[in-house]
Amino acid sequence: MAKRKIAQDKNDLLADFQALVSDTEQLLEHSGELAGEKADEMRQQISDSLQRAREALVNTEQAVVAKGKEALDQGETYVQDHPFKSMAVCAGVGFLLGMLIGKR
After folding, report:
1. Cα distance between residue 13 and residue 28, in whole Å
2. Tell me, what is one Gene Ontology molecular-function annotation carried by this entry (predicted)?
3. 3-34, pLDDT tens digit by residue?
């Protein structure tokens, strides 16, 4: 479920950035022609797009941080529940790394 949320947030963020780029391109293309009300409308659209992109970025960041904390908590719980397995895995990894480094 968290993966879907992160993927959806990523897609929303990308869509907002694409809309921002599109609005900016339109403003640049028509900046010489636009005056007054039309220019203000384009600036407001760009401002709205930028605000949505910022919000999506914050939401995505929060989701990633939450997922990372959840994974850390799960790892800590596993080590606490299975201390000997955890030590054996660490010893095995250390042994393999020692063998690889020792061959050089």
Report:
1. 22
2. ribosome binding
3. 677 677 777 777 777 777 777 777 666 766 66
Provide the residue type at 22 as one letter.
S
Buried b (16+ CB within 10 A) or exposed e, 19-57: bbeebeeeeeeeeeebeeeeeeebeebbeebbebbeebe
The radius of gyration computed from the CA coordinates of the chain, to the nearest angstrom, equals 25
Residue 67 near residue 2, CB atoms below 8 Å: yes
